[in-house]
Amino acid sequence: MAFLVSLAVVLLAVSTSVLLLLSHQGWLPPAVSLLAKAVDRQFDVTFVISGVLFASAQLLLATFIWKYRSTRRNARVMPMRGHGILQGIWTAAMAVLFVWLAVTGFVPWATARATERIPGVLVVEAWGEQFEWHFRYPGPDGKFGPVHPDLMNDGAGNYLGLAPWRDPASRDDIVTANLAVPVNQPVRLILRSKDVIHSFFVRELRIKQDAIPGEEIPVHFTAAKTGTYEIVCTELCGMGHYEMHAKLFVMTESRFEKWLRKMAAQQ
Amino acid sequence: MNPERPSGSSGVSQPRPSGLFAFVRKYVFSTDHRVIGVQYFLLGFVAALIAVVLSLVMRVHLAWPAVRLPLIDRLSPLGAPGGLLTPEYYLSLLTLHGTLMVFFVLTTVPQSAFGNYFLPLQLGASEMPYPRLNMLSLWLTLASLVVLLSTLFIANGPPISGWTAYAPLSAAGAIAGPGEGMGQTLWTFSIAGLCCASMMTAVNFIFVTLRGRAQGMTWMRMPLTAWAWFVGAAMILLSFPALVVDCVLLLLDHLAGASFFLPAGLVMSGQVLGLHGGSPLLWQHLFWFFGHPEVYITILPAMGLTSHLVSIFSRKPVYGYRAIVYSTVAIGVLGFLVWGHHMFMTGMNPFAAFSFAALTMAISVPSAAEVFSWLGTLYGGSIRFATPMLFTIGFVSVFVTGGLTGIFLAQPSVDMYLHGTYFVVAHLHLVMGVAVGFGIFAATYFWFPKVTGRMMSERLGQAHFWLTFVGAYLTFMPMHFLGLKGNPRRYSSLSAVPFVASLRPVHIFITIAALATAAGQLLFVVNLVWSLLSGARAPDNPWKATSLEWILPSPAPFQAFATDRPVVQTDPYELGVGGNPEVYVTQGSAPPATG
Predict the structure, then answer these.
(1) DSSP A175-214
(2) CA B586 to CA A44: how far, in whole Å?
(3) Predicted complex ipTM exceeds 0.90
(4) Which residue of A has its CA nearest to B263?
(5) Domain of B358?
(6) Which residue, A143, A190, A256, B440, shows the most beta carbons closer than 10 Å to its own?
(7) What architecture (CATH level 2) is domain A116-266?
(8) How far apart are CA B274 and CA B293, in angstroms?
(9) Complete DSSP assignment for B72-131
(10) pLDDT tens-digit profile of B519-562?
(11) Is residue B366 a part of any domain in this protein?
(12) Closest B-chain CA to A247
């Protein structure tokens, strides 16, 4: 029995470690922003530290189970009750390691949530509702018009309850079903919701942010590679949660301008 | 030296029941902590059985959405027409699975079932200080369970908001989705009831520890199981009120037209709800102020039991007894300061997030210290591989694996990717579900002889261990992979999003592993029933253990320590005295002549 248990734990440690190391490069989808690369570096550091701790703890467990199994030759035990210094060193080492991780792990996250004004930033609103995303661009005036909950009418296409006939700022607002941004352009995305909590998630950007009704929550990113990416909802929002998704198009500057003009014409 | 006494020599014998009334008084409406402990175990057993079946239904639906499941359309013709789950019914079952497991299994069994039975015995107390309160607690828990399960039989079924019931989804009523009307109201009543019941149990645990200890049972002579139950009870008493408040406010939103959790300007299904500014985040703050201590409330008893069993089955004292005591208390305190790590994505101030991240990392330190102590206890021991020890070794392995993924999630920037994905599902199931489950199994195999007077089958127990250990790893390890690929949790179907659909083979693998693991649990059920009816007669101290319950006959008699109060003269883990694995001193028996 000692042999079997020990073997099982060794197999667990070895197979998991080998699997992780062999396929490590392919774990996460490609990172397409500076922020995403910073997150990946932090992930890698954490991965190495936890991997070493995992493998060494499991292998020690397996070794002790095998070595100190009850046998006739093993008829004595070492009844020590602890080593204060050894335990103190271990505890202090863990404390330093974990707190260091917490400090370094903080930087990329805070960058995504910095509140200072970035020059030339493109501001876009992302709205969640059961069970779709809407995006709003402020148009040439750079201002979002006020939203009126009583005018929100999905059937009539007025998803956000805009009243361009009386709010001048709303006249050039552009509401779209997918999100497009120019490549290498800093974007300030403001998360809002009409009904329940949703969460905006783009894997390749490593960005996730809740959209909470009654709040406007900004998040920043700069996409560095053109392409089409999936936007999904990662907060349980009701029966259609699983099908709440949209596309993120990262385009060249000129194609983006063209796309935005086309969308403006459809309003 | 033989610390055991001939059985049948206890001070008080229980009066035999005569007639139906006496039977009901003794085994149904009992104030005896032992009977209440067993009743809690049975209650948790039923809840676990239902919750496991629900999880299998969900897993099969995810992997093979076209498979028509038997019987479920009888239960809910609306939710599963022709045996095919609707998206909303999937979420209803998901909510019930999480709620049953977290509240009625993982909180109730390690703490209320085993704690009720064995905390007074390990301390040398004759009874719980408030036996009627204890009985009320049990019946309130049962009523809460019945109310929760009744949602299966109402028109729109159980709520769809998950066990965390985030507002506004949970607060806006039926307009937010099926099950969010009556279903959510009943859920809230049930959880408020369970919280009150758990607090009553906690009061008993705290007072029996403060006032009921036998002569000589000093704080530093308490078994580590007793320490864990005590700290767990203190955590319950301080954290569960937050959830009761949360539930009361949610009920006011549901029934009295209040809007504590509903901001102004909500539009659902094309209707303006016409509310005045409440806060959805208020729900989360109160919920997680309860919720994170809760995680430790479920696992502390299992950690205490692990320290206890590692020592007994290695035949040597606990390595670093005081370190484990201080770690347990540190976890109890730090557990209240980390709730914000569940809310990194809610737009929290970066400085608040930094504090929560640092404190969350800090709580890993006492856990790491305990792992070190367990390995130190195994080192140089003479390890016996009875079934309780197998599950204890399993616990250590799973606790390390599940705990380490916590240091990914504790960092806001890594959590930004992993939050809300299957990585979190893997983490919480390993560390809460599987690890605590192993603790429950170890406790059952270990204490069954003391409760029933019979041994459980070793052969069945070992087979059960292997199926569970291998099966649980095969089920939950691949979920980390799904999380790294960004697969969001709580999706009722994989079909809508292309990158999620491409992960279906992994989901199929997980479902097969889950079905096999669940089938393996039948061995446990068979073992329980078979051993109860015809297991070998248990000696008083079959494991040569050292805490007070083992000086009693098996099964433990009624109010065993009422007249025959033990006097404790030794530490709780006097094993391997003089380096001989066979020499040990049970608390309450005479200490050895030579030190």
Answers:
(1) EESSEEEETT-EEEEEEEESSS-EEEEEGGGTEEEEE-TT
(2) 49
(3) yes
(4) A214
(5) 19-260+276-585
(6) B440
(7) Sandwich (2.60)
(8) 36
(9) HHHH-TTTSGGG---HHHHHHHHHHHHHIIIIIIITIIIIIIIIHHHHHHHHT-SS-S-H
(10) 999 999 999 999 999 999 999 999 999 999 999 999 999 888 98
(11) yes
(12) B497
Contacts of B364 (CB under 8 A, 6+ apart): A94, A98, B403, B406, B407, B410
- Per the structure, the count of domains in chain B is 1
Binned at pLDDT 50, 70 and 90, residue B10 comes out as: very low
- Contacts of residue A72, defined as CB under 8 A and 6 or more positions apart, other chains included, come to none
Under 8 Å between Cβ of A186 and A222: yes
**Are B1 and B583 contacting, i.e. CB atoms less than 8 angstroms apart?**
yes
Write out the residue limits of the CATH 2.60.40.420 domain(s) in chain A.
116-266
Q: Is residue B108 part of a domain?
A: yes
Residues A193, A159: Cα–Cα separation, whole Å: 11
CA–CA–CA angle B341, B293, A82 (5° rounding)? 100
Single-letter amino acid, residue A159:
Y
Interface of A with B in 180-239 (CB under 8 A): 191, 194-197, 199, 201, 203, 206-210, 212-215, 217, 230, 232-239
Distance, in Å, from the CA atom of B186 to the CA atom of B155, rounded to the nearest integer, reads 13
What whole-number distance in Å separates Cα of residue B557 and Cα of residue B464?
30
The residue among A236, A131, A129 whose CA lies nearest residue B92 is: A236
- Using a 10 angstrom Cβ sphere, with 0-12 exposed, 13-18 middle and 19 or more buried, the burial of residue B264 is middle
Half-sphere CA count of A42, side-chain side, radius 13 A: 30
Using CB atoms, pick whichever of A69, A215, A217 lies closest to residue B383.
A69
The C-alpha of B500 sits at a distance from chain A's nearest C-alpha, in angstroms, of 10
